Amino acid sequence: MTAIVTGCSDIQREPGKVYMPDMGYSRAYETYAMTEEQKAELLKKGIHFSNTPVPGTIKRDELLPFLIGKDGAGDSANYVASKAVKNPLSSMDTVEAERLYLVNCGICHGPKLDGNGPLYRGGDGPFPAKPATLVGDAKYEAMPEGQMFYSATYGKNKMGSYASQLNTKQRWMVIAYIKSKQAAGKSSPAAAATTDSTAAKK
Amino acid sequence: MTNHRPIGMKLLFSIPLLTLVLLGNTLFAQDGKALFQSNCASCHNPFKVITGPALQGVTQRVPDKQLLHDWIHNNQKVLASGNPYFTSLFNQFSKTPMNVFPNLTDKDIDAILTYVETAKPPTSTPGDGTPNPQTPESDNTLLYGILTLILAVIMLILLQVNSSLKKLADDKDGIPAAEPIPFWRNKVYITFIVLILFVLGGFWVVEGAIGLGRQQGYQPVQPIFYSHKVHAGINQISCLYCHSNAMDSKHATVPPLNVCMNCHAAINDYSHGPKLYREDGTEVDGTAEIQKLYSYTGYDPKTSRYDPANAKPVEWIKIHNLPDHVFFSHAQHTKAGKVQCQTCHGPIQEMNEVKQFAPLSMGWCINCHRTTKVNFPDSAGNNGNKFYNIYERFHKDLKTGKMDSVTVENIGGTECQKCHY
Questions:
Q1: CATH class of B24-118
Q2: Is the ipTM of this structure higher than 0.95?
Q3: How would DSSP label each residue in B232-260?
Q4: Binary contact (B96, A73; C-beta < 8 A)
């Protein structure tokens, strides 16, 4: 019965045939498109689909790596030490920085940096932890950029590491963008009013 | 009677009192919610263990109110005093230090605790999770087939009747009838049938040959039921959050599992979205699919620890596959061409199971290259992409009005070597 149903349904579960498989499917290794033999060969070397570059590799146009390592469990020495690190970027493309923020951070921290992105929705969204209020919370406005960079690189509490999605330069751009928004929030009176109201609640 | 009166009086008095207390309580809890969200919610949830323990029931676990207040004000001091309950809790959460809250007043803390104890878990919204309608599509092919067959039979009968009548008439007129030829030796019939077979056969062969290597509509069963509808549609996660290489690389790339765990370390159940169904109509347990992710990453949601020995890659099935002799780069299309994901991948934010939307045939590529305009400076004040400055003749033609826009084809987008080399 199921055979008849699947036979007649419009759901196409098989990819179909090709003229010449060795022209259709790459002989060289390609991400997520490997023959079974290629997969077995890589597995022997302990590589699963994507290999990481040699440790210490620095890409062209990439900043020097962040030298502070990740803290062990229950330790915060490196987190504290990261406060001293300064942003190496002197200038940046603000439009691109905003785009990176909206793509990677806005989903939790909110497009307005108010810690209320679509995943949290004031506690009604699926994400159970309140994301940091980047603009309007004295704690994060006073946080040095190096420490923010540490959190973006290794993750903090329930925030994950963004080192695989954003490279060193992009992470610094995002942090500079947050800092610029915080500075703008402090100077503009409208934002100051919202800070006051949150302060009054406390 | 005399006995009842005081009770009635008491009741009468107690009603406004009760409402007052209740109202006060709700106001209190509301305030507590705001305080909780601004101070505690980044590490605590009333019902879920996140960075810190789940808080509901804390007043039963720590009956000593003063101790609880001391802990919230300054947990370091309580730990230093060597309280056994809090010390074991601290060790259980891998010694992650809790922030100190010296500014919270006792009243604030009470408000927070009231909120925590009275909060109700978010109810799941069933939404409009109707299964995909399995109604058979109104396909009229069968009906037409039967009609054709009936008509053909009627035609045959009429032909037979016609020839019999003719024979009768001929007999009457005394014309000697020709020896009847059976239809399998009748040249007209044979030519007709051969012609039909030739046309049909040719059509099927050509159709099949063109279809080889094309997989439009391909929709394999993936190892984890990952719904693009839930992630990109309902929760509005940008495509580039996960496919972060699409702007910089040939491949859009399937994200590594650490990207999933950015959110799913905290989101461990599926309770906020509509019910999920596979294409064949069977229901999917979202929470079980998240558990599958944990089994692939070797993550234990109870202890929040990873065990690399248990981790293994997810063998996702690649859907969109261009033959090896075609070069295609996502970066060129998304960054320089500013093409939206949906142009080629279809309404991906509405797909529970991803399906190949475009035919990915050469004709399809070429059609788009012929009609798509490239980013040249225009009269609207757009400066265009500086890379195209080298096409001096087109710039001149645009100025003189000889051309109104430049397409990808104009700048060599349909040359063989652009994609085949």
A1: mainly alpha
A2: no
A3: IIIS---HHHHSTTTTTSS---PPPHHHH
A4: yes
Q: Which of B91, B45, B92, B121 is nearest to B302 (CA)?
A: B92
Tokens 């070429």, residue located: B366
Residue A39 lies in a domain: yes
Phi-psi region of A74 (alpha: psi -120 to 50; beta: other; left: phi over 0): left
Whether residue A178 sits in one domain with residue A88: yes
* Domain encompassing residue A144: 77-201
Whether residue A127 lies inside any domain: the answer is yes
- For B259-317, how does the pLDDT look when each residue is reduced to its tens digit (9 = 90+)? 999 889 888 888 888 888 888 888 888 899 999 999 999 998 888 888 888 888 888 88
Residue A105 Cα, gap to closest chain B Cα (Å): 9
Token digits of residue B138: 């109104």
A74/B96 CB distance under 8 A: yes
Q: Which of B34, B96, B215 sits opposite A15 (nearest CB)?
A: B215
- B187 close to A (CB below 8 A): no
Verify whether the Cβ–Cβ distance A127 to B211 is below 8 Å.
no
Residue A45 touches partner B, C-beta closer than 8 Å: no
Query: Within this chain, do residues A90 and A184 fall inside the same structural domain, yes or no?
Result: yes
Domain ranges of chain B: 24-118, 146-211, 228-359, 361-421
